[in-house]
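Dear support,

We are seeing what looks like truncated structure output for some complexes. This example has two components. We would appreciate it if you could run it in full and send us the complete token output so we can diff it against ours.
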Amino acid sequence: MVVKDKKVGEVVILTVDGEINFNSSPDFRKAFLKVLDSKEQKVIVNLASVAYVDSSGLATLVEAHQKIKNSGGRLKLTNLTGKVKSLFEITKLEKLFEIFPSEEEALKVF
Amino acid sequence: MTDPKFEIPSDPKYIKEASAKVLDFIKELGLDKDTVFDIRLCLEEAIINAIKYGNKCDKNLPVNISYSFGDNRLEIVIRDQGSGFDYGNIPDPRSNGNILKHGGRGLFLIRNLMDKVEFNNSGNEIKMVKFLSGGKSDGRKG
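Here is the complete output from our reference environment:
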């Protein structure tokens, strides 16, 4: 799994490529903690290239959401692929997260 | 013929290898992508639970994996060496009090994505069944 970051205005966009699973979720955690350390408060996680997430990956995304929220920021998820989206529906995490079809849509409402 | 079975050490680095072995077995069934995703996820969640909670990550303890297919029924059994757990008393990870918790979603996903889930009496063995026909899941949809 690779996490790339870029900045659009005040928003940091993390683009994840690969799986967020039991073995790779610590790497994703490191990537968002780095964003938090740099005091960024507007964060988008683009999941277009994530075809597989397990319960550890979901838990790490929940942790990112909470940590960013507790520091006064907001986290939005974009471009969820079919099965990953269905996991958010089954677990009701779709109600916890702000989920958008594209980065552009998410950027509009920060 | 006996069902294929193998074991892995309780080390997360073996999850992918174990999963690939079972997925290779089901490849010839010509299942659609979504069904393969569900099976892989449930298999890996069960193995992670066995490593983490059952065998407490003790690399000397094996996780036993067996699988079979017949009569449109795929059955996967995962066993750890632990003393089991109270599988009848699992909190709902969707509830307001649990939605932010780290754990609890693995077994919930297994119960949602598989058609039948059974434990042995002590709770250190899980049997997961998926009904399949014509390359698709024939049971409930996740």
